[in-house]
Amino acid sequence: MRRNLTLAAVIALALAGCKQSGTTKVGSVTIDRTLESLVPPDTIFMMGANVDAIRNTPVYQKHIGIIELPRLNEFTRRTGIDPRKDISEVLSMTDGKSGVLMVRGKFNPADVESKLEKEGAQKIPYKGHTLLGDERNAVMFFDAGTAVAGPSAALKAIIDDHEKGHHGLPPDLAARVKTIPAGSQIWAAFVGGVQGLNVAVPPNSNLAMAVQVLRGLDNAMLAIDLRNGFDLNGDAKCKSDADAKRLHDALKGIIGIGRLSTPDSKPELLKLYDAIQVEQAGDKVTLTAHLPPDMVDNFLNLWLKRR
Questions:
Q1: Which runs of consecutive H residues, i.e. helices, occur in the chain?
Q2: Which residues contact 306 (CB under 8 A, 6 or more apart)?
Q3: Domain interval for residue 278
């Protein structure tokens, strides 16, 4: 079977999950206990989504849940998994070099393994676990309720760390996650700065300015709550007041460009940009936005008409 089809199936499987194993309290948001125990100790960025909670929000029930997605339907046909029903929680993370995706939900691992093998995935045994894919990318069922996908080397490292007794988020990341507001269905946390970022870019270019802004970040978090419209809360701690000023100005600039490019016939979009607030206080930058349900409905209806 063609290799690209194999990798596509492996990557797509990362959107699957299995039954809940309970949650562990990490600050204001909760993370599935099993997923939390598998987070690599060198993780600097993590994004989480409580998919069960998202499905219960008006935004999902009125708009997202009824959209026809051909690629998602094809994935469901090939694996027997419907992400719109079967996913319960997703964690995505990176150490700055490679990324890993972990999921929980409802599926039958044996059935999925069989379907993936038919798509060309190979079985790679490792310390009592089985990786499905190839030597570059794979997916594994850590237990009957957990799927993990990413580079094969990263999956083997997760198994090694777990055997060594590593369980839980890195301390700095756990502290940042603790600041995320309770009830957030979608969230992200970043720690450690980007000191290792070494990108060759043209001087005085927009990309060079973006890299400079990123290098000024020390840690950050972002949270989204869809229970009453769209609520966004984020804050970033920078290495200096000057770095915070650069981040503040960059965010304001992006919002300004969005407003300028909005046609007069779309006043809903102007209200959207106006709802986003960016503030700076010393080395800290905050980003907030509240869109009431009617504004969210207008924006999504506009977006769906353009599909």
A1: 3-13, 33-37, 51-55, 58-62, 70-79, 83-86, 109-118, 152-163, 171-177, 206-215, 241-260, 267-274, 293-305
A2: none
A3: 193-305
Give 305: exposed, middle or buried? Use CB within 10 Å, 0-12, 13-18, 19+: exposed
- State both tokens at 200: 């060759």
Please choose, from the candidates 11, 41, 45, the residue with its C-alpha nearest in 3D space to the C-alpha of residue 160. Answer: 41
Q: Based on the fold, state whether residues 14 and 121 are members of the same structural domain.
A: yes
CA angle 169, 212, 246 (to 5 degrees): 95
AA letter at 201? V
Residues 87 and 210 in one domain: no
**Given the structure tokens 């600097």, which residue do they identify?**
44
| Placement of tokens 């998919």 in the chain | 51
Q: Do 18 and 155 belong together in one domain?
A: yes
My answer on whether 199 and 159 are in the same domain is: no
Is the four-CA dihedral 259, 263, 264, 270 of positive or negative sign? negative
- The string of pLDDT tens digits covering residues 151-201 is 999 999 999 999 988 888 999 999 999 999 988 999 999 997 665 444 555
pLDDT digit string, tens, across residues 44-86: 999 999 989 998 998 888 877 666 666 667 767 766 777 778 8
DSSP 170-238: -HHHHHHHTTSPTT-SEEEEE-STTTT------TTSHHHHHHHHHHTEEEEEEEEE-TTSEEEEEEEEE
Q: Is the pLDDT of residue 145 over 50?
A: yes
pTM of the model: 0.82
Distance CA 268, CA 17 (A): 37
Residue 72, classed as helix, strand or coil, is helix
The token duo for 86 is 């079967």
- In 3D, which of 85, 97, 95 has the Cα closest to residue 54? 85
Total Cβ atoms within 10 A of residue 156:
17
